[in-house]
Amino acid sequence: MSPASDVWVIAEHAGGRPRKITYELLGLATTLAGPMKVHAVVAGGGVAAMAGDLGAHGARVVHVAESPLLEPYTTDAHAQVVGALLAEAAPGLVLVGSTAAGRDLAPRLAARLDAGIITDCASVAIEEERVVATRPAMTRKAIARTAFGEGIRIAVVLPNIYPPAAAASDGSVEVRTVPVNLDPGSIRTRIVEVSAIKRETVPLTEADIIVSGGRGLRAPENFALLDTLAGVLGAAVGSSRPPVDSGWVPHDYEIGQTGKTVNPQLYIACGISGAPQHLAGMSGSRCIVAINKDPQAPIFGIATYGVVGDIFEILPLLTDEVRKLKGAGPEGGGPAGGA
Amino acid sequence: MNIVVCVKHVPDTEVPIRIRADGRGIEESGLNFVLNFYDEHGVEEALRIKERLGGTVTLVTAGPARAVEALRTGLAMGADAAIHIQDPALASLDQIGTARVLAAAIKAGPCDLVLCGKLSTDDNAAVVGPAVAEFLGLAQATAVTKLELGDGKATAHREVEGAVEVLEVGLPAVITVERGINEPRYPSLPGIMRAKRTAITARTLADLGIAAPPPAHVELLGMTPPPKRQAGRRLEGEPAAVVHELVRALHEEAKLL
Amino acid sequence: MEFTLSEEHRLVQSTVREWATTRLLPRAAEMDRRGAYPGELVRELGEMGLMGVFIPEEYGGGGMDTLSYCIVLEEIARAEAALAAVLSVNNSLDCFPIFAFGTDAQKRTHLTELARGRKLGCYCLTEPTAGSDAASLRTTARRDGGHWVLNGTKIFVTNGVEADVLIIYARTGGEGPRGISAFIAERGDPGLGVGKIEHKLGIHASSTCEIVLQDCRLPADRLLGEEGNGFSVAMATLDGGRIGIAAQALGIARAALEDAVAYAKERRQFGRAIAEFQATQWKIADMATRIQAGRLLMYRAAWIRDQGRRHTLEASIAKLFASETAMWAATQAVQIFGGYGYIQDYPVERHFRDAKITEIYEGTSEVQRLVIARSVLGALDRAVEPVRAEGASVARAAGPEGRRRSRADGAGGQA
Question: How far is CA C23 from the centre of its chain?
Fold first, then answer.
């Protein structure tokens, strides 16, 4: 990429606020843009109010596409509006978050704009005037370095890798209104319902702490032990593949080759042996705690802290100990088997 | 209901891979290739729809000679027909180019629904499905965990961050499927024998009216094994003491609590 | 000479391997511990056509060949050996004789349900005093109007507890092999009962029991093949069965090898993975060598059978070598695991226990050696005929043409 190129960020938002990934992308864009400008595109209903916030986090120009037809997200509406905007501006680099919506939209835009696209980017950098991204490939058994050619480049960046941009009070944000001329008939999908998955306090992919269970939990009801610990830690609960295959937990719990990739600060693996299939999805975690009764379990080979012991004994103790640390003290009626 | 399922022949995810000396790919010799398992879910979903509503299931793949095995697996599961796009130029395509080629093959026949796996387990890109939708000018729903068809439209459930989104889409459309949408059947022995007898339609880029292969916009510079993590500290001893030490370490050393 | 599997054989292999890895392997330890018959898995196998691999599709089978059958059994046994025994009895010892020797009506009534896995078969040959010397069996069948009345006790009957269809050998004439006839009985036939249930060393998830016949009345149309031809039915059946046991044995041997390899790479002693020690490497190398040799013998026996040619000798050689390889490889695996190999938390003691039966049932190793030696040495003893019975060909569904055998070709052991 010639250094003289602006960097664009597709700003994803939820509940009237930019999502965490948007701040992460703004931080990355600011680094990559150097002296050039960071643009943010925010499309939806009632999104104009976010422009200032995006500006405070690094966007110099915010393109606001405001329409009830853009809310909630649909492929057709966003591909038309964002696609037209990008086609006209032809930016050298567009950053999109690797989220449900980002992964839905970005390839569609790439096909429409005849752009280059690299998904699941774990890093994006400019090397010798080329934009180079690294990404996991071969079900995360390899890291691929991939370079964009010329033209519009779309990098779909994994969440939880880059630190969110800090708020700076530069304030010099330029807001541009994007004309929206959508024909409602051109939107071929209709969102009928969005129902929150109740168990999830934080989405797994965005969580800072994950408590995860494996075959060692032995039965579905034992996931309650993880829920209790996760509640105390403010963590999300995940699993390796065997509990999913056995029907103990729904498939959206799964972390690994065939499930989600997570990069939390702290990953607590309970009764997980550490098959390559699972390691592929979580070995990017900053700190890994493994609790397993089998001292030979491969999970210990990558664990920052390895606890050899019975999870049914350790987990209640751990829950109590964390409660103590957080100052709440053990509650009456908490899990049995405490110290 | 004429259903087309896009499939890919990929290295078995259960076996280790070796990266080529030049880093520009993996050693294919000695590697076991299988039908991409997300595509297996696509084939299964197509077969279930066909069993309910009638119609045909056609598989399409763009890949080298060995990719015929992915088609045979899908046929053995119960698909009716298969198209194998084989051309030396395929090797130079990026995912957008591959989608263009697949779309050209799909356009050539009747089609009410296109199913793709959410992603292929080699490139892990999740690009081809939505790009095929764009080139066909069809609506899309990606990473679908539940699909119901009726009345010329589909109702699709997809998992978004922390929620399940239910959307309606008119047919024809492109749907990419997530693991969990169904439990794919195993091919039966009679199915394998039928698959052996089914003629596979061969197509080149020229057959599809593509004179020159679309140029790639991205280039693989190299592949490396993921960085190895080192084992840290082993905490052993009396459970209460171990847990106390763990929490202390997480709090004071790692500063995570 | 071509040493690669065809595309459809590879597809059979990958399909069954995936099924066995996902559905069977995770339950193997528990199946062994609880000794519970895996009915649900048998139904799944039936849906895939695996309970009647070489039975034509029109009779509910898989419509494939003996080579496919070997591939299937090896993959199943690699995950769990008892289910391989269940499958092998149903395929080789029930589906096959009904297909090869049964009337059209018998095939329609009994074969289709067996091949689809909706009914389960067992094979009743061995008796307390007639093991390897099967031709000396004492169970009797006498005519009574339009019925046969059977009396006697059969032992070591695999699948006997769950079986719906039973192939029973009984004496309808004088002493010796030519006085024996084969019958098809069904669960619920009057006078047919399950006797003592055995507790075995291995293959716990398959049942083994006595079948007791007390004035068991069977309609005349339950005679399988011609009267007095039962021993030929039994022997032709066992030729194919032995190839299946070779496949089961190789599956167990492979399990031993693969588990040992994984462990040897993981287990560290003296600062190194034990796989780095030559003492381990030589064991692994010998295991791999014997398994490959066994597989080639088995594939060749299957190939000869699929050509419709006589394969008694090749089946015996394959069975002998494969079963002794299984026992030997399992012993090596236990040794590589050391103390962990001797406890039930690890799978190799199960392979060790499961392997042993392959040296015993469908003809002990001693019986196989007898068959092989007779064939190699030719007719030393004029009083005993050399082995020359042709195995019934799957391809042309050999009828019960008069084959005569020496008694010592024996069926042997548990079937």
Answer: 22
Which among C22, C26, C266 is the nearest to A296, CB-wise? Answer: C266
Beta carbons of A298 and C22 less than 8 Å apart: no
State the Cα angle at C268 between C264 and C274, rounded to 5°.
40
CB contacts of C50 in chain B (<8 Å) are 189
pLDDT for the residue C381: 57
DSSP reduced 3-state for A84: helix
Q: pLDDT digit string (tens) for B144-195?
A: 999 999 889 999 999 888 789 999 999 999 999 998 899 999 999 999 999 9
Give the mean pLDDT of chain C.
Answer: 90
Residues of C in contact with B187 (CB under 8 A): 11, 15, 48
Contact flag B34-C7 (C-beta cutoff 8 Å): no
First-to-last C-alpha distance (Å) of chain B: 56
- Each residue's pLDDT tens digit, C61-74: 999 999 999 999 99
Reference C209, options C268, C162, C275, C151; nearest CA is C162
Distance CA C119, CA A108 (A): 52
Whether the predicted pLDDT of B72 surpasses 70? yes
State residue C152 phi and psi, 5-degree precision. 150, 180
Contact C49 B76 (CB under 8 A): no
A302 touches chain B (CB under 8 A): yes
Mutate to test the interface with A, among B160, B230, B253 (most CBs of A within 10 A): B160
CA distance, residue B64 to nearest chain C CA (Å): 16
Task: Give how far C340 is from chain A: nearest CA, Å.
Answer: 11
Distance between CA atoms of residues A149 and A126, nearest Å: 12
Catalytic residue, from C74, C80, C324, C362: name it. C362
Contact A298 C266 (CB under 8 A): yes
Q: How far is B161 from chain A (nearest CA, A)?
A: 6
Q: Decide if B131 touches A, using CB distance below 8 A.
A: yes
Report pLDDT for A170: 65
Q: Is A298 on the interface with C (CB under 8 A)?
A: yes
What stretches of chain A show up as alpha helix (H) in DSSP?
Answer: 20-33, 51-56, 75-89, 100-113, 223-233, 241-245, 276-282, 311-325
Residue range A58-70: mean pLDDT, rounded? 97
Q: Hey, what are C35's tokens?
A: 């000794």
What is residue B157's three-state secondary structure? strand
Label residue A333 by pLDDT band (50, 70, 90): very low
Asked if B69's CB is within 8 angstroms of C7's CB, the reply is: yes
Mean pLDDT, residues B69-80: 97
Residue B81 pLDDT more than 80? yes
Q: Is B146 on the interface with A (CB under 8 A)?
A: no
pLDDT at site C400: 38
Contacts of A322 in chain B (CB under 8 A): 247, 257
Closest chain C C-alpha to B2 CA, distance in angstroms = 26
* Average pLDDT of chain A to the nearest whole number: 90
ipTM entry: 0.93
Active-site residue flag, C113: no
> pTM score, two decimals?
0.84
